[in-house]
Structures are given as C-alpha cells and as structure tokens.
Amino acid sequence: NGYIALNHKSKKIIIAFRGSRYYNDWLINLSIFPVNFIPYLQYHIDNSFNSYNCSCCLVHFGFFQAYGSIVEDIYSTTIELVKTYPDYFIEITGHSLGSSLAILTGLEFKLLGLNPLIITFGGPKSTNHKLSEFINQVFNTDALLNNLFENEILFENGGIIRIIHKGDYVPDLPPT
C-alpha cells in the first residue's frame, strides 16, 4: 500500500500511500458505511484515549479497516526512524485511497505527540463532518490558513494540505 523513505538532504521521513490499483482496493473503496473512529494505536498498543475526545466521529469502514491492517508496522518503523533521526520532519502523503490512509495515519501520529505534515491528492471523503472538524482542531488548520495568507508557512507543528482537481469526482465520494 505504500512505503517509508528517508530524504537526508531535506531531513524528512516520508510515508507515502498509493491509490487504488487492485481489485481488493476497489472493495475497500466500496465499503462506505460509517463506523466509529477509535484511535487504533492508542486502543491496541497502550489502551488509552488521553488525547482523544470526539463524540459522534465516524470514518469510512473500508478505509479504517485498511488503515488498521498496516498502521502498527508503519508506526513501529517510523518511531525507530525518529529515534535514529530525531531532527527529521515527518511528511505523510497519499493519492486517492492513499490519501485516506495518510489522513488517518497523520491524525493518529499527531494524537501520539508527533507532528506530521499531511499532503493528500485527490482524496475521497474519509470522515464525517464531526471527525473532519476534530482533525482541523487537532492540526489547528485555521492558524495554518492565516499563516498561509501572511506568507509565513510554518509546519513545525504539523499540518494538512489537501490538493484536489476541480473536475475530479473522487473528492465528492462517497455521497453524503
């Protein structure tokens, strides 16, 4: 579904997720019913929810299931890289299905104290409005937007950049 890379020149740990390619990916895309979002790593690793408080937050079942199948490996590898390269910045990116995985991974990393920059391309709707608002709050996107207009783009505390094409129908799916 993706890979983790190092860019020593720009001091980045890059986590990249691909879009839909195989039959199983399309089955994931079509599993559109919403389920409660529970931070996977906090629940499965340390069984705490100390930084999570989002009632009625829902996530696309297929994306959440795909995320759950890969996140522990991604997290353990990333933590080892952060220990080895503590001054490196984490960037998480993805296209289409991969953008949903990038958002869920980035959110959970942020809840666990990391500060990733998430950059997505052509991503579908992964969450309901409540969870989207929560993500915006966690990443303080209002302040990021204000800094953008003041030409002071600072992402030391992470952030989200969502890139879509005007004619692309995927960002409007699934319909709400």
From TrEMBL:
One of its GO terms (biological process) is lipid metabolic process. Residues 14-175 form the Fungal lipase-type domain. Signal peptide: none annotated. InterPro entries: AB_hydrolase_fold, AB_hydrolase_lip/est, Fungal_lipase-type. Its EC number is 3.1.1.3. GO terms for molecular function: triacylglycerol lipase activity. Pfam families: Lipase_3. The keyword Ribonucleoprotein does not apply. It comes from the Eukaryota. Keywords: Hydrolase. This is triacylglycerol lipase. It comes from Ascoidea rubescens DSM 1968.
